[in-house]
Amino acid sequence: MTADQARTLRSLERLRPAGDGSADGGATDDGTPDGDTTGNEDGESEDAAEGTGSPDRTPRAVVVEADRGRGKSSAAGLAAASLAAAGHDVVVTAPAFRSTRELFARAADLVPVLDARGTPGPDLPPDLEPREGAADAPESPAVPDSPAGPEGPEPADEGGESGPTDSRRGSGDADPPREVESAAGGRVRFRPPAAAGDEAGDADVVLVDEAAALPVTRLAATLAADRVAYVTTVHGYEGAGRGFSVRFRDRLAGAPHEVTEVRMDEPIRYAPGDPVETWAFRALMLDARPPVDPLVEEATPGTVEYRALSPADMVADEHLLREAFGLLVLAHYRTEPDDLARLLDAPNVAVRALTLDGHVVSVALLAREGGLPAGTRAEMYAGTRIRGHMLPDVLTSQLRDEDAGIPRGLRVMRIATHHAVRSRGLGSRLLASIREEFSPGGGNGGSGGTGDSGPEGEGIDWLGVGYGATPELLRFWRSNGYRAVHCSVTRNERSGEHSAIMLDPLTAAGRDLTERHARWFAGRVGAMLSDPLDDLDPDVVRELLASIGVETAPDLTDREWRHVAGAAHGAALTATNPGPFRRLVVAHLVDPADPRPLSPRQERLLVRSILQGQPAPAVAEAMGFHAPSEALRAVGDALADLVETYGTEAARAEADRLS
User: Fold this and answer.
1) Residues 420 and 465 in one domain
2) What phi and psi, each to the nearest 5 degrees, are found at residue 325?
3) Burial level of 131, CB count in 10 A (0-12/13-18/19+)?
4) In what order do the strands lie in the sheet with 498-505?
5) Domain for residue 21, yes or no?
6) Residue 111 in 3-state DSSP?
7) How many domains does the chain have?
8) Residue 653: Cβ within 10 Å count
9) What does the pLDDT look like over 412-436, one tens digit per residue?
10) What is the DSSP pairing of strand 205-209 with strand 187-190?
11) Residues 201 and 320 in one domain
12) What is the per-residue pLDDT across 624-646, written as a single tens digit (0 to 9) for each?
């Protein structure tokens, strides 16, 4: 065990829950601190309260940072085993179980030894010292070509694809168990990020491996635990996302947890200063970074240049490649070596960028999709997944449109803008330039155009995107002409969001595809919200429906209008026939009257009560009403406003009669 690993193990041992006297740094019989209580990289002693013998209930967090190959996962596994052997419930989470193989292998090795010894603690038998070369397992693979950025895409498909084999163990080795139990009743168990966040408050300790590869919302949910550790990579793709280094660090600083920082520098995979490690970092661009702030801080939509970055351009100019790739890496928490290979070698991928004096300010990865022959479309319709065609796949297999694979499109795989110049409209400028280039007559135009020098040598009918839906992202993409045609019924495991699919048509074929799916989405979304999407954020619902972009009107009979008017004035119940109420609210949110008759708060209220069918007590609690009856009266008032705006003569006559 290296000195760094030993120091990390001692710091993680501080996470023992209150009242556990077996922790490193706990009290001995004479009340003095037991052993080395170092809790940070400078070796400063911990708070003297550690040695008082009194239960310390201070919430604690440990942040462990290291480059690849420093043994951080091994140290985390040893600490988890020690905690479990003391009877504690340790929840481990990571982007995928593959990321935690070394952690669980170490825990599975050590727990039986500690059980046999009967005195759990950090001192390890010699045969359990970290093995030569047993470095951290590689990060789990992302869904290929489904990345994200601060202004755009999260993965929209719910599946995944196999990634590289874990190099630490042979391909024939079995995976370690996902749960390790101790004789004392403790356990180390893996939970996916969403479940780990939900269960954090009940676990004794939560341990997040490859923390920087998870979105901030997932990390923030784990702060519900009193004892939590975040183990992450400093350099390299796993640790590059600004979500952990900036946004989550701010959240952690505002939490009640006492934070201990540990950094591991001593390698176990290489000798110190080994040139092979330096070569690997450079070859895989693990150290790629965007340009420094002063070089781009004067960028505006009017001062930048729109450029196509060909593989030949980037290979010839390593500085340009490093800036473009570094910007993509820094903006996103799911980057792998495959992404670099795809950037330079994939025949269906193109790169477009905005530059200022040759420096990359904003960059987008585009993937050609669609244009599929009849046989391939039939296979996709029957359920076969065709790689590299994510949006046609969703529209064909999930939404049962066999013709969706005929038009050709470009999906925005990833879009990122330099952090120093965000909120200046540069992302929108980049999307507008892409649209202009690939529109008919734009040089690389649509099916009616003449251009054939695009990434695919064929015309483009639509632009598309799939990402984890948030109100801000929905507004961004809608403002750039994209229309919502689908929302996934399950949450993406990493982002924690439901994925939105949006299209921006460029030709008649693209408009036909977009229009038929937008209209169908408007017709079915009400039913989706009452069942699989009944927990979707009301503001996401509002922005999602506003992004559909079809003209619609409430389709209610006079009898249904009288029912709605009766419920608005307290003479009828919405539950006796919910359908007309849902159609009315959906029509309002998709195609509202001008001026808009409801406030944003009223719309949120109707989303919860009418579209999602939440009971009045839950609505009252979520929206801050004093009592369910107050929430019901507010629902009636909002319905009355809709009756006044959209209702027929029969509806208004009923309202006049009851008012």
Assistant:
1) yes
2) -70, -40
3) middle
4) 305-308, 349-356, 359-370, 408-417, 462-468, 498-505, 483-491
5) yes
6) helix
7) 3
8) 15
9) 999 999 989 999 999 999 999 999 9
10) unpaired
11) no
12) 999 999 999 999 999 999 999 99
